[in-house]
Amino acid sequence: MLTNYLKITLAVMKRRKMFTFITLFGISMTLSILIVLTAFYEHIFSGNYPEVNRDRCLYATLLEEQNTKEGGMRRGPMSLYYINNYIKTLKTPEKTAFSTVPNTINIYGNGKKLRLFFKYTDPVFWEITRFEFLEGKAYTQKDVDNNEQVVIINTDTRDDYFGKGVSAVGKTMEINGQSLKVIGVIRGCPITRLVVAADLYIPYHLQKRASEEVKEYNGGYTAIVMAKTPADLPKIQQEYAEVVPRIPLLTYGGFTPDRLNAGLSTYFDSIVRDMFFGSGDGSARARFYLFVTIFALLFMSLPAINLVNINISRILERASEIGIRKAFGASAQKLVTQFVIENIILTIFGGLLAILISAVFIWWFNSSHLIPYADLAINWTVVAVALTLSLIFGLMSGVYPAWRMSRLPAVEALRG
Fold first, then answer.
1. Of all residues in the chain, what percent are helix, strand and coil, respectively (each to 5)?
2. Of 12, 78, 147, 204, which residue is least crowded by CB atoms under 10 Å?
3. Of 109, 126, 26, 91, which Cα lies nearest the Cα of 354?
4. Per residue in 329-375, pLDDT tens?
5. Is residue 158 a part of any domain in this protein?
6. Residue from 99, 108, 103, 102 nearest 175 by CA
7. What total of structural domains would you count in the chain?
């Protein structure tokens, strides 16, 4: 029976080329966009290289000092003073690392101007992350204690500054007025992994401003807190939640805060909170899911409505065929089943075409260097989502036209 339905579907597709093109185009483009967006979602939120420990890490990215009575707020990353005194002193975590947010710098090398992202980090940063060192090694606490003038770079920076494939370890780079010796070359990661990505990694003691000595809470640093196991994450969050209310509030000029808002969040929660400025992780997460749900419903429903109209027109053009089949005793149930299965087969073709289009686009994007080190991937989860969406589209756009067609009287159908 399914073989007959497939043959009929292929024959209809060949006979009605314009309807076939419009249907396949609408389905494949819609699903392609959803597949690519899913790939970007996984690219941003999944624990990929070098953040393979993300499932047992919490992130402190923002701190908010607020005056609830008179108004006013200071909001941003934290200072080293705050991290050293109130985050690194937590007892439950296994390790705590810190680094600055990515900043840009212009340097000159190999006869050209390079605009690069750089970070200051502590040595523990290299213990929590799992960067692949292609040359050399990471700096250690001993290097920090000895005030070593060192830097770690990624492969793109090595190739641009020293030449393609040239060994860089042991050579020096002029960065921000300092002569730094390259001690390691890593395989880089895309800048979309904001907490860890950079082109240059410099030990924090080389900052010209001794920021760890400045007694204020806002600064330019974020922290990564790693637990021994994922099960310890709630314990760490609870410990920190008990510490924050006991932190003494500071006065900055004429601004005197009376409330300090800070927390340790999973990577997902920290990114979503920064995007949607929620008052808390639950609020930000709710807004994010509401936005995604509304977008997905609108994005899927509009093509589905268009396909309903296209299918109605396509089915009404086959009125004589319907009349003949009803005259020979075909029941409404059989006719509905036939046309729904036809539509599902057609949408599956569209889904497979969408997977092919998405795979080509993702391959092109990863190769284009629009985002260096981009590693978008189409995997079986994405394929399953695409095929499921294809079936949903088939049902959404095929059930009503098929039901309407089955109620068409045989005499009217034969008249066309």
1. 50, 20, 30
2. 147
3. 26
4. 666 666 667 777 777 777 788 888 888 999 999 999 999 888 889 88
5. yes
6. 108
7. 2
**Alpha carbons 161 and 199: distance in angstroms, whole number:** 11
Alpha helices (runs of H) in 244-280, residue ranges in sequence order: 267-276
Tokens (6 digits) for 308: 């309903």
If one compares 284 and 357, the residue with the highest pLDDT of the two is 357
**Residue 96: closest CA among 272, 245, 212, 221:** 221
Domain shared by 42 and 86, yes or no: no
Note whether 9 and 137 are same-domain residues: no
Same domain? For 40 and 66 the reply is: no
* Residue 228 structural domain: 62-264
Q: At what angle do helices 332-368 and 380-406 cross, to 10 degrees?
A: 150
Residue 128: phi and psi, rounded to 5, are -80, -40
- Residue by residue, DSSP assigns 326-352 as HHTT--HHHHHHHHHHHHHHHHHHHHH
SS3 for 221?
strand
Q: How far is it, in rounded angstroms, from Cα 205 to Cα 147?
A: 7
Q: What is the dihedral of CA 229, 190, 130, 143, to 10 degrees?
A: -120
Distance of CA 244 to the CA centre of its chain: 30
The residue to which tokens 């204690």 are assigned? 145
45-102 pLDDT, tens per residue? 888 899 999 999 999 998 989 988 888 888 889 999 999 999 999 999 999 999 999 8
Alpha-carbon gap, residue 99 to 77, rounded angstroms: 10
Whether 279 is covered by a domain: the verdict is no
Q: What is the DSSP letter of 94?
A: S
Q: Is the pTM of this model over 0.85?
A: no
Q: Domain boundary residue among 202, 232, 264?
A: 264
Q: For residues 97 and 38, state if they share a domain.
A: no
Residue 281, number of CB atoms within 10 A of its CB: 18
